Amino acid sequence: MNKNALSVEKLCKTYSHEHSKNETKALDNVTFDVKQGEVFGLLGPNGAGKTTFLNILAGTVTKTSGKVNVWGFDIEKNPRQVKASLGIVPQEVNLDAFFSPKKLLELQAGLYGVKKKDRITDTILKLVSLEDQANSYSRNLSGGMKRRLLIAKAMVHQPPILILDEPTAGVDVELRKNLWENVKILNQEGVTIILTTHYLFEAQEMCSRIAIINKGSLAALDTTEKLLERVKSKTITFKIDKVKNKEEIKLDGAKFLFQPSNLVTVVYDKKSFKFEDLIYLFKKNNMKILDISSDDADLEDVFVQLTKS
Prior knowledge:
- The chain has 10 helices and 14 strands.
- It is α/β, with parallel strands linked by helices.
- The protein folds into 2 domains: 4-228, 3-Layer(aba) Sandwich (Rossmann fold); 233-307, 2-Layer Sandwich (Alpha-Beta Plaits).
């Protein structure tokens, strides 16, 4: 059984307002674990509390109550060890334009107190596919290369946990694919990945488990597969040779939408009846099915279902 890379227990953060007695709960009794070696998704709409949580991990925000344990270290009792266990890749690209990737990594390693003999700068550059640009000015790097350089900077002290905050924001499709390939390599090397993203298809593809935070509270925590099972409805579109007897095409628990070009879209509750019942309904009414397309639920459907007001 894998040990926990990160444990969060009843975490609360309340902001007091200087000129009123009102308070804002940014995090309210949040509890979850991240297993060692997994890719874990932390999702939520804007203002859900994700940034507050990441700032607590980074040490820039102090929690109000609860416990946070990172790689076996308590965030209050062992802040230095917690920082050493984390590599945080920020959303904003903030690099010194006149430093080369190699110089930047060497400087970052020095800031973390890594001795020269213990630095693995060349290894990290190779890991993020930047060895050929090691001595180029950062200002000459492409957007995707700069994103990978941010990951490299977070890895200079060899942290066991890497936090990626919206790593593909503003990155094109090809560069995004390349970035995820690098992240997968890091994970295969044993690095635990915690990912926040607004591109839900990325979380669905990359993460083994996902936590969804909404209005400061944990709305869901489960494997990606089980979260997808929460969507009860299914959508199927049939292409029919000739639509007839529309008034006879009905089933309890199903909604039929007749469209141009002899298309019939059916939205139904997966637990109400079987797919075979639909086939039989069309056959009974002498409507020949020419084609079938299915629109399966994705993580976006689950997300909307859990976070809507």
